[in-house]
């Protein structure tokens, strides 16, 4: 029988002490005022993880509208004469057809083709890009790469503090705040604007799988004011504060860096070959490594799974995956994230597996803190992302 002495059942989740060593978001006081009950540390900053009931937040997200503090997405500003050339160097995605006021989802790769992080790239003006990455010190990595290239580029962490406005009623709230411009924006577009004198960038992006916007405050001292403006505008639409929702992100197959994506993974592990242009004109880190990986064929994949048994709240560590026939043999993979879906009434998640175990319908054994359970490989996402704003808002 498989045995991992480091894989133990937690007695209880520990508390996180609040102190000056970890940064507080410009919206931290607002989240406390509105009832945040738990936090994690993300990019060296406190981030609320729930306001008392993550399942209630899930239903508010899929039915109404929610506001999230995601200032922990530390915005990296890349500017200068060689800004586009440098950005091309960091990602295998071809950026030559990315105009200003447009966003792209990109992977940042190292010299071995491994994924340093995933990010939303925003082309703000001719020689200025913003990167909105997942957890990890991407700014330090980019600064280190820049020091070796000799390119004319400046890389700083900007005073740019994002919130996410997410849910099917998000366009109603955005219309109240920004008028027709919020409804006319295309998916993955970005604009610069003002709200009651506050300078903002607003994009049609988000990590919810629902309709949504990200609002980037360009002066942190106004965090409380911006939060309250949005909550007031959303009151008639049943707005509520929430945290990035694990349930909805898994349902929509939205990946999380350091959980689903790791440095040892490559774009082909996630079926993201569309984000790799091996023949793009601009040079980029990891081209030769990715060519070799592509030619040999990827040996691992991340796939959707449905897990047997009672409802799972979440997993606090990677759960080992073993061969389906009995519990003998070595670990062949791991469950990265999993959770109970109230809409599906199933436990769902992702597993990183050898390619031969990834066809739909393949049975697996999962080793949980409570013992062995079964699982099956399924197609993901379970609920695709909503992208189209319905007509009639504001009329």
Q: Main traits of this protein?
A:
395 residues; Alpha-Beta Plaits; six-stranded mixed β-sheet; 19 strands; alpha+beta; 20% helix; six-stranded antiparallel beta barrel
Assembly type: single chain
Tell me the structural class.
alpha+beta
Distance between the termini: 64 Å
CATH superfamily label of the domain at 76-147: Aminomethyltransferase beta-barrel domains
Biggest sheet overview:
6 strands, mixed
**Assigned CATH architecture of the domain at 76-147:** 2-Layer Sandwich
Explain what the structure shows.
The structure is a single chain. With 395 residues, this protein is of the alpha+beta class. Helix 5 crosses helix 7 (223-234). It has a domain at 76-147: Aminomethyltransferase beta-barrel domains (Alpha-Beta Plaits, 2-Layer Sandwich), CATH 3.30.70.1400. The strands form 4 sheets. It has a 6-stranded mixed β-sheet, with helices on both faces. Strands 14-17-16-15-18-19 form a 6-stranded antiparallel β-barrel. Strands 5-6-7-4-8 form a 5-stranded antiparallel β-sheet, covered by helices on one side. The model is unreliable at 5-11 (pLDDT under 50). The longest helix has 12 residues, at 138-149. It has helices at 28-33, 54-63, 83-90, 138-149, 170-178, 180-184, 223-234, 246-251, 287-296; strands spanning 38-42, 45-50, 66-69, 76-79, 102-109, 115-125, 128-133, 154-157, 161-166, 190-195, 198-203, 212-217, 240-242, 300-307, 319-322, 333-341, 346-354, 363-368, 371-378.
């Amino acid at each position: 029988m498989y045995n991992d002495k480091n894989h133990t059942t937690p007695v209880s989740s520990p508390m996180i002490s609040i102190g000056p060593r970890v940064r507080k978001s410009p919206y931290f006081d607002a989240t406390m005022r509105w009832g945040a009950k738990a936090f994690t540390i993300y990019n060296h900053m406190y981030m609320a993880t729930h306001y008392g009931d993550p399942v209630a937040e899930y239903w508010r997200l899929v039915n109404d509208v929610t506001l999230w503090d995601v200032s922990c997405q530390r915005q990296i500003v890349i500017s200068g004469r060689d800004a586009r050339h440098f950005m091309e160097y960091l990602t295998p995605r071809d950026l030559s057809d990315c105009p200003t006021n447009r966003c792209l989802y990109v992977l940042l790769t190292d010299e071995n083709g491994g994924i340093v992080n995933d990010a939303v790239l925003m082309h703000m003006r001719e020689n200025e890009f913003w990167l909105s990455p997942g957890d990890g010190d991407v700014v330090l990595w980019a600064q280190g790469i820049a020091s070796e290239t000799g390119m004319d580029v400046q890389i700083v962490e900007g005073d740019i503090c994002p919130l996410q406005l997410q849910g099917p009623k998000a366009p109603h709230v955005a219309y109240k705040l920004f008028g027709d411009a919020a409804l006319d924006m295309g998916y993955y577009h970005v604009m610069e604007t003002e709200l009651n004198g506050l300078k903002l960038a607003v994009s049609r992006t988000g990590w919810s799988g629902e309709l949504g916007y990200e609002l980037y405050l360009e002066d942190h001292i106004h965090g409380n004011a911006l939060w309250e403006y949005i909550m007031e505008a959303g009151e008639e639409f049943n707005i509520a504060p929430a945290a990035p929702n694990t349930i909805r992100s898994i349902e929509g197959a939205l990946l999380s860096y350091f959980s689903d994506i790791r440095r040892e993974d490559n774009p082909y592990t996630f079926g993201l070959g569309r984000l790799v242009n091996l023949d793009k004109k601009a040079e980029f880190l990891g081209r030769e490594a990715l060519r070799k990986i592509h030619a040999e064929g990827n040996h691992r994949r991340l796939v959707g799974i449905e897990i047997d048994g009672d409802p799972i709240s979440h997993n606090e560590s990677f759960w080992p995956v073993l061969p389906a026939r009995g519990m003998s043999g070595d670990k062949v993979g791991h469950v990265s994230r999993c959770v109970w879906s109230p809409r599906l009434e199933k436990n769902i998640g992702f597993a990183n597996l050898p390619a031969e175990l990834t066809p739909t319908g393949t049975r697996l054994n999962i080793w949980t803190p409570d013992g062995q359970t079964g699982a099956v490989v399924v197609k993901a996402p379970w609920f695709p992302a909503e992208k189209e704003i319905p007509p009639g808002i504001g009329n």
